[in-house]
Amino acid sequence: MIKFGTGGWRAIIGDEFTKENMQLLTTAIARKLKDDDMGDYGFVIGYDRRFLSEVAARWAAEVMAGEGIHCQIINRESPTPLIMFAVNRSKIPYGMAVTASHNPAIYNGVKVFMDGGRDADENLTQEFEGYISELTPDDIHPMEYNEALAKGLIELIDPMNDYIDSILDAIDTTAIRNRGLKVVLDPMYGVSKTALQTILLTTRCDVEVIHERRDTLFGGRLPAPNVHTLASLLNHVEENHCDIGIATDGDADRLGVIDDKAEFLHPNKILVILYYYLLKYKGWRGAVVRNIATTHLLDKVADAFGETCYEVPVGFKYVSSKMVETGAIIGGESSGGLTVRGHIQGKDGIYAAALLVEMLAITGRKLSEIWEDIEATYGHFEMVERDYHFSQQKRKEVYKTLLEDKLLPSFPFEVDHVSYLDGCKVYFKNGGWVIGRFSGTEPLLRIFCEMQDEKSANQVADTLQEFLAL
Fold it and tell me: Quick one: which of 69, 89, 268, 290 has the most CB atoms within 10 Å?
């Protein structure tokens, strides 16, 4: 059974990620389009650099053509935010990215987008799952790719220039040109190089690129920009005295940053810095949206400017929806994804990177200096993150203890209240918090804890870990 998680459908290649399952999923989307009398609007497909992505995109396009639905397929490997941009620009109901984002190389998958280019919400993905459950392989009727091209049912498109121009139009290119910044880019063997390098070179940055070639094994590392995977980028920033090092994950919807001191800048800090920049330096006004496992420092910044910080479950579809509902100016998550009002309604590591570069130019300050200002004003927080693999039996045990029986250990700090919005989150009276939740994209239990110091955060995380016998 094809099941959607917080970031689409992802599966191990050759196990559940197969030609038949790709065709079943696409047939379900096509049937939904036709049942809603939206088949004439068409469909957009893009793909990243993963093994089988381009081939799987063709499988999907052949199914759409066989269902009589015009399918636009992007003519090159593309960042996920570019695909979302294309869905929005084309004013069509749905689109698809063939990607497993930051998952290990043995995975591939599909992200589905709805109107406006935002992530498909839970109601829509449940409808797709309902359609899939009623389909059999006999219901798949693909049209051969070249035949569909000849009949005009498949059309190759190239929205890259328009996407790049949309970002250049949204940032202060003159200020960046006048600053002469030195930037190193690490696409992590993924798909951000063309777009991000073009933006940076157009604004006259001195740009160097590492890990730019295609490698479906991602250099043997997880294609997720974190403190464990960016050693090469960190070294490059330090050795070459760069202003900033920028990394994007496999499909370029998340980013990681190395600052001017050659230190990893946690995604929590990136989100806080950009919100602070938009409020203080650009004069924007509006709320911020964060998921339930993201820093509460955002709440403090929002409150200081008379704004609101909204908390939502993990999954960027919840961030996007709440931003639309509230008119928030920025939304994001501790895993490195964020979006800004006025751009696409989804994560975009390329636009976020361009905005960070603009910030350095406009403020005339270093990243480390800006962060020091924020901490001096709003306080210091430390977050620890832990992942635990488990057997199916252990998952049932933890689920029952934490989410059914709602049992908790005796924590070393006084509890204020507990939320079960997504997993189990404990809020402490000192402003700290801890959450335990099952990943929606991988077989993991994740524990996040934020406190005023690292010792306290580890103490709380240890308490929960030992209580669950992980």
Answer: 290
